[in-house]
Automatic annotation (TrEMBL):
Entry-linked PROSITE patterns: RHODANESE_3
CDD domains: RHOD
Cofactor: FAD
Pfam family for this entry, one: Pyr_redox_2
Superkingdom, natural source: Bacteria
InterPro entries: FAD-bd_OxRdtase, FAD/NAD-bd_sf, FAD/NAD-binding_dom, FAD/NAD-linked_Rdtase_dimer_sf, Pyr_nucl-diS_OxRdtase_dimer, Rhodanese-like_dom, Rhodanese-like_dom_sf
Domain Rhodanese residue range list: 462-550, 582-671
Molecular function GO labels: oxidoreductase activity
Protein name: NADPH-dependent 2,4-dienoyl-CoA reductase/sulfur reductase-like enzyme
UniProt keyword list: FAD, Flavoprotein, Oxidoreductase, Redox-active center
Length: 671
């Protein structure tokens, strides 16, 4: 009879036990857990502290009793394994409550001990108001401190997944929160541009973010940083990383790998053929670059647990490795990464490149549309997708899963470009953000539309004579732009080509990259060859400037709109303040929406949105020959307004076209 002993009872261990029982009705399966709980939802701990999960019991997926009843698995909690006797196929353990020593024989052993939070050796790290978060007991200690001591301020040390989730939770509990991160930006596994989206959300909710600094001391009421700054802190959460639990494996003489995790082969077998391992403690192959890595994530841990159990019972199921897909939600903002970043891809030898697009997650005309960002990393020689990142308030997870599928399947950017994604106005767009990212990558690979990411701009302009051209409208330009950029709205670009230098690199950008692509094609077709577009446009420049900044480029940061927890989402009133139309003189009518009008309009214009024109045209007066000029964003809606007014009998109605041309005319007349 097979005797399967599993050490570790959370993600990988509990999954291995359940899988083993499904494979064998006769095997004797024993699960040993050093702590008091098995099979609990450790990823959900911050959400209970923050109040999103109301009931603690929701986090308990199994108990020793339910595991015994459902799977006939013998579970021993509070049981610390002290040694493995590989020759005798026996583990020695102790009940930490009673001190009783126990021996468990095995034919196959599965190690699933996971990891533990790294605790820094700095003064004050052992104070009672300093916490880590890894177990239900940790969660209970934090919740008790919040309830009994009513802290007003907190410092979260570490800007990774757990750190940022806990920053949100503590804000929801009413604390003033600071996040301290030693790396140049929070979410260091992501590019600075993606992290900028999360950083802006943290700041919007009042979280102070301190990067490139470390903690030197924790006192009863403050945290001191290595730059001398003191931060008030009634509680401190340490979240600076996870270290694999390897003492038992080391003492048993099992081989440790090059990345610091327990070495296993493709079948999750350790250097001992009768011992398998899974979860956060092992090192595995990265599916893109083939390197040995540690990826402490719940998804890979659960899959490894299943495979380890299968192979321990005679199976031959290889684990293909991981691509490290991970995602975080901070307040309403979501960002994720899969595969390799551009920097990682180049570091391991790929001739890699990347593009960025910002596009609405469903059609812009359907209510609730939000922009979603897609960064696609690909191999220049083959076009194969190597990785990517996404960010947005809606739809970021969906696009991340698409990229993960492409990476795992070794799809090319052309494969992605040709995929039919689900489309309906409330759900998607006819050309999804993934299609658009793939198109941009194809255009870059072919040379049809040269571009650089925001992160590459500094190196591009270092020591070179460069002309930046901002092709956005005047209102966007006046709020923020690259210092020294020349403002030429896209609609006016053709008329100013002769004034542009042919001997300098021209870098164009718009808000999201789309019009920048049009500008590149306009300039290339006019004979200018040294032209590139900033992929992702001004929006990407803003996110990078907010995190790591630029050395050779200056971009004014836009203000971050403050948000509050539990704010009721109300429709913003956008009634434009304007003078009534009096007399019979010429009138300029802006037929855009009130929101668009408030973003900037031609001086002297009045706002009658196209959708309201049928009931408000009387405001134009009774003179059918009155000189009326209508305009909108591009000239399309104003063409309909012109036709409608003409049908009503107004004989002197002109379509002024888009706001860019109208502003150019206004400025020309004013000068």
């Amino acid at each position: 009879m097979e005797k399967i002993v599993i050490i570790g009872g959370v993600a990988a261990g509990a999954t291995a036990a359940a899988k083993a029982r499904r494979l064998s009705a006769s095997a004797h399966i024993t699960l040993l857990e050093a702590g008091p709980d098995i099979s609990f939802a450790n990823c959900g701990l911050p959400y209970y502290i923050g109040g999103d999960i109301e009931n603690r019991s929701s986090l308990i997926l199994q108990s020793p009793e339910s595991f015994k009843e459902q799977y006939n698995v013998e579970v021993h909690t509070h049981t610390l394994v002290s040694s493995i006797d590989r020759q005798a196929h026996r583990v020695v353990a102790m009940d930490v409550r009673s001190g009783e020593q126990k021996n468990f024989e095995y034919t196959k052993l599965i190690l699933a001990q996971g990891g533990r939070p790294v605790t820094p050796t700095l003064p004050g790290a052992d104070l009672r108001h300093v916490f880590t978060l890894w177990t239900l007991e940790d969660m209970d200690n934090i919740s008790r401190h919040l309830s009994e001591n009513s802290p007003k301020s907190a410092v979260v040390v570490g800007g990774g997944f757990i750190g940022l989730e806990m920053a949100e939770a503590l804000v929801k509990r009413g604390l003033k929160v600071h996040v301290v991160e030693l790396m140049p930006h929070v979410m260091s596994v992501m590019d600075a541009e993606t992290a900028g989206f999360i950083t802006a959300e943290l700041m919007a909710y009042g979280v102070d973010v301190h990067t490139r600094v470390g903690v030197t001391e924790i006192t009863s009421s403050q945290v001191q940083l290595d730059d001398g700054m003191l931060i008030d802190a009634d509680m401190v959460l340490l979240s600076i990383g996870v270290r694999p639990t390897l003492q038992l494996a080391r003492e048993a003489g099992l081989q440790i790998g090059e990345s610091g995790g327990l070495l296993v082969d493709a079948y999750l077998q350790t250097s001992d053929p009768d011992i398998y391992a899974a979860g956060d403690m092992v090192e595995i192959d990265h599916r893109v670059n083939g390197k040995k890595v540690r990826i402490p994530l719940a998804g890979p841990a659960n899959r490894q647990g299943r495979i380890a159990a299968e192979n321990a019972l005679g199976g031959h199921h290889p684990y293909k490795g991981s691509i490290g897909t991970s995602v975080v939600r901070v307040f309403e903002a979501v960002a994720g990464i899969t595969g390799l970043s551009l920097k990682q891809a180049r570091a391991v030898g790929f001739d890699a490149d990347a593009v960025v697009v910002h596009k609405e997650h469903h059609t812009s005309y359907y209510p609730g549309s939000e922009p979603v960002t897609v960064m696609l990393v690909f191999d220049k020689a083959t076009g194969i997708v190597l990785g990517g990142q996404t960010a947005g308030y809606k739809g970021a997870d969906k696009r991340l899963d698409v990229i993960a599928t492409a990476v795992a399947s070794k799809l090319t950017v052309s494969d992605l470009a040709d995929i039919d994604f689900a489309y309906s106005p409330p759900i998607g767009t006819a050309n999804d953000a993934m299609n658009m990212a793939a198109y941009a990558a194809e255009n870059k690979l072919s040379g049809y539309s040269p571009s650089v990411t925001a992160g590459e701009v500094d190196a591009l302009v270092d020591g070179k004579p460069v002309l930046f051209i901002d092709v956005r409208d005047v209102f966007a330009f006046e709020k923020s732009h690259v210092n020294g950029a020349r403002h030429i709205p896209l609609e006016l670009l053709t008329g100013q080509i002769d004034s542009l230098p042919h001997d300098r690199l021209i870098v164009v950008y718009d808000e999201t990259g789309k019009k920048g692509h049009q500008a590149v094609r306009t300039l290339v077709n006019a004979g200018l060859s040294h032209v590139v577009n900033i992929s992702g446009g001004h929006q990407s420049l803003q996110r990078l400037a907010l995190t790591v900044g630029f050395q050779h480029v200056k971009v004014a940061l836009l203000p971050i709109e403050a948000k509050r927890i539990n704010d009721e989402k109300q429709e913003k009133t956008t009634e434009a303040q304007q003078a009534p139309m009096q007399g019979e003189g010429p009138v300029l009518v802006d037929v855009r929406t009130p929101g668009e009008f408030l973003m900037g309009a031609v001086p002297g214009a009045v706002n009658i949105p196209l959708d309201e024109l049928d009931r408000r045209y009387g405001e134009l007066g009774n003179n059918s020959g009155r000189d009326i000029t209508v305009y909108c964003a591009s000239g399309a809606r104003s063409a309909y307004a012109q036709m409608f007014l003409q049908q009503l009998g107004y004989t002197n109605v002109k379509n002024g076209g888009g706001i860019t041309r109208m502003m150019a005319m206004y400025r020309q007349q004013a000068s």
